[in-house]
Amino acid sequence: MKFMKIGTKPDTFYTEEATRTVISDIPSDLTIRINNVCFLLHKLQIPLVPKCGLLQRLCSDADDSDIVTIDLHDVPGGEDAFELCAKFCYGITINLGAHNFVPAFCAAKFLRMTESIEKGNFVLKLEAFFNSCILEGWKDSIVALQTTIKLPEWSENLGIIRRCIDSIVEKILTPTSKVSWSYTYTRPGYIKKQHQSVPKDWWTEDVSDLDIDLFRCIITAVRSTYIPPPQLIGEALHVYACRWLPDTTKSRPLHSSGSQTEESREKSRRILEAIVSMIPSDRGSVSIGFLLKLLSIANYLGASPVTKTELIRKAGLQFEEATLNDMLFPSQLPTDQHFYDIDLVAAVLESYLVLWRRQSPLPTENSHMVRSIRKIGKLIDSYLQVVARDVNMPISKLVSLAEALPDVAREDHDGLYKAINIYLKEHPDVSKADKKRMCRMLDCQKLSPEVRAHAVKNERLPLRTVVQVLFFDQESGSRSTTHKPESITRARQAPIEAEAKEECDKKVQHEGTKSSSRVTETSEREIQKRMEAKMVRGDSEKGKERKGETNSTAKMMEPKQVFQRRSSR
């Protein structure tokens, strides 16, 4: 940062309540009122009026002996900027830098402290400092540009904003090999002394200090001057978002109705919507993790539906690149009892599926779209296993997300089974109907032998599900032994299952006076017993046909023992 010192006299200004005056033997004959502050100054004895064209005009009708009072409430920069101009006229030492240049320059222009009034006046010195120091410096240009937000109209009319932006953009476009000025770069793991080359995104952190409107001007100017890599613009947006937007990844933010908090939320909404509008259309310009983070922030801030829809669309395009950690956001709705924002994931998944179905109406087994949807299927099942541990997670949301995937998305149902098992373990009070609702999603044919072995012994599962697992487990074992087509086994087992169910239904009708819960329990036990018996008889007949295969009946009796243990309980 560079500074300019003007004047040689010590500071003789002092403030008493709302009055600022100069220690002098000469009585004050000029009162300047700015807002609630009065300046007691001198007209001619000290070269104040001779240096200010505006004051000359306002004092032209007054005699030299008159005490003149002037109101200058509209001076840009207020009383502090006017004091800098007054001290310059008195020859008092002042220090100028990028932080106070803009108000001083605007006030000097307002007071008409130009060369036409007096040679070597304040405006000339300020312009020289602006051109030779501020615009030549990287951080000086950014600081000066940021101070223009307090005087936007004056800064725009005097060309300060445009010239600062031009200077900043010129430095951003400078080849990294020629960057010699100081800059801020605090990425984790980056140490300047260990890196000889300047990173391509060296400018992003310093520019993130700007107001969002000025930041947008910088990004727009960079993109219009030349075509930068989309990832570079995306990185600048990411840095700015981390600098100004709330972090919703760790815990649920506290919602407050205070006016100050609401004002802050409104400012954050404006920043968020501006960032979303600046995201390049190129796929991969920002990461899927960043898009999901912005969507979570949008839910927290109550952003417009247009902003949310755009984020969901962009996230859907890149959903295949997501990881499990990218999706773990707490819910931002105060009415939600559950912790994880499962609705966010469901919305992005729906957007992805719309695009997937449009691009691949009839996917082949080895196509890219099948590989893509199966990658998403594994990701969703992993996510379900995490959110299933949430004790307040409604079963309806879990089932809805699991059922949203098409059948082709899951090569196997092992991951889905694990999610169901975790949910039943963490929610021991779940109703029998809800258990059946969850397990209805399982395709027992897509369970691995290890998972089927676990399911047979899993007392959390409904009895009907265990029966189905046993059927397919024995069917698989039968195929491996006899090498017969699958259709033959199913054709043989289907009548057995139907006959057992029919006999059980008759028994249920006969015992119609019993309670509905007990009827249901009896039905399931009858089904299992009938099916066991039929299966044993069927395998015994098959064993007679196949000579030497006496062990098959013994194998088929093993599930019966499992059923007997569950029935005894």
TrEMBL record:
Residues 498-513, 521-549 have a biased composition (Basic and acidic residues). The keyword Transcription regulation does not apply. GO terms for biological process: protein ubiquitination. Transmembrane segments: none annotated. It holds the Pfam family NPH3. Keywords: Ubl conjugation pathway. Pathway: Protein modification; protein ubiquitination. Residues 201-476 form the NPH3 domain. InterPro entries: NPH3/RPT2-like, NPH3_dom, SKP1/BTB/POZ_sf. Residues 475-569 are annotated as: Disordered. Belongs to the NPH3 family. This is NPH3 domain-containing protein.
